[in-house]
Amino acid sequence: MDMEYLGNKELLKQHKTAFLASSTIPPDMVLECYDWATAKHEGCVVSGFSSKMEQDVLHFLLKAKCPVILVLARCMYKVIPEELKEAMEEGRLLIISVSNATRQSKVTAHARNKYICNIADKILFVGVNEKSSLYKLRVDYKDKTIDAIG
């Protein structure tokens, strides 16, 4: 796996909680996710921040000044997105690219999610059922799973 890092690599030494959300979240889980995102977290939160819910959670985490590890299923950003710049300057962000693909695909997304599960101390899965692409990971990493939402 071709890995590329941008930002504070020291975050990898912290306790890491992964946040992985299905692309379809039942409406009753949305507020639970927002509450989770605005709560105080031990260490940092790691995710691909790819699904709509994950993107919303990233917004709240950045606002709360929570350290974040963003794992891309594509090549590294050429320009850091505006929303990430402050966290990057303050040393609260590490961006990891696990693929040199131009765009995210199902294959690169799965590789990214597996990498996230491997480096995480705990994993929160949201809205994952038997039809979800995250289901096998939830089964494989059940020993790291914390109370799943949904």
Tell me what you see in this structure.
Helices cover about 35% and strands about 20% of the residues. With about 150 residues, it is α/β, with parallel strands linked by helices. The longest helix has 14 residues, at about 105-120. The N and C termini lie far apart (about 30 Å).
* Spatial strand sequence of the major β-sheet: 1-5-4-3-2-6
Proportion of beta-strand residues = 15-25%
Shape: globular
SS class:
alpha/beta
Q: What's the pLDDT, averaged over the residues?
A: 93
Percentage of residues in helical conformation: 25-40%
Features:
150 residues, alpha/beta, 6 strands
Tell me the layout of helices and strands.
Layout (H helix, E strand, L loop, with lengths): L3 E4 L8 E6 L5 H12 L5 E4 L4 H12 L4 E5 L9 H8 L3 E5 L8 H14 L2 E5 L8 H6 L10
Helix pairs in contact: 1-2
Gist?
Helix 1 runs parallel beside helix 2. It is globular and about 35 Å long. Helix content is 35%, strand content 19%.
